[in-house]
Amino acid sequence: MMAGSEILWLNGRFVAPHEAVVSVDDRGFVFGDGIYEVIGGLGERLFAFERHWRRLRRSVEQLDIRGVDFDQVEAAIREAVHRAGCELTVVYLQITRGTAPRSHAWDPAGLTPTVFIRVREEVPPEPALAELGVACLTVPDLRWGRCDVKSLNLLPNVMAKQQARTSGCYEAIFVAADGTVTEASSSSVAIVVDGELWAHPNGTRILPGVTRELATVLAADLGLTLRERTFDRDTLLSADEVVLMATSFEILGVTRIDGQTIGDGRPGPVSRRLAERFRQAFWNGEF
Fold first, then answer.
1. Per the CB 3.0–4.6 Å rule, which of 45, 67, 180, 183 could disulfide with 176?
2. pLDDT at 109 (0 to 100)
3. Among 158, 23, 73, which residue's Cα sits nearest to residue 65?
4. What pLDDT does residue 114 have?
């Protein structure tokens, strides 16, 4: 097996891509009835694994998906990561409620969860993104009321991301009906106001981002404070800096939103310092 191979595991066994097949009656396929998690790592050292694992288990519990053997799943992840032999590792884990005749309601006694793991080489973002910053647009937040669950129901996120890309932007930032900025289509959002980081309070309106959680810890190392507080689009646009946070790209500074320049049009000092500290934590295996 070549280093950096893609490794797949489905329902208890390692499989080739052509063997990774689920039933047309799988509730994840039919209803989006399931959850997922994405974990990055350096080789076999998975970054912030315990934090991702806690979020995964909480999502499973919140959707009342029963019968998941978490010890087996964790062991499979570790073995898949070992077999893949990647330098920069990314793990995708998906758990659905299982297979049953199509019906909105389900009989828990007759269901066995479908568990899928994919491990492959992570493709890091272009360095220019961190150096030059990214543009975003704002879109209405049309998602369901339990955004704290990392579910497979991502259609509003997908449509928002596509709208951003077709508009020449990197990311779409959600604005709720009451005018509150919540998060972005696939990342957390924070702003810098007078040297403080502000981010929407954790709760049902946003996903509890692991990268954001780590950024809160690392900001303290830099003498910064991340405060949970709501803010609106006008505050977003007038902020000194706007910062995106996600497992896939870590920390990025935002330079334009809806065509309006943020700050001086370059990633600001807080986002640059935070990004540097985050990279240091990743390579040193601090979490």
1. 180
2. 87
3. 73
4. 98
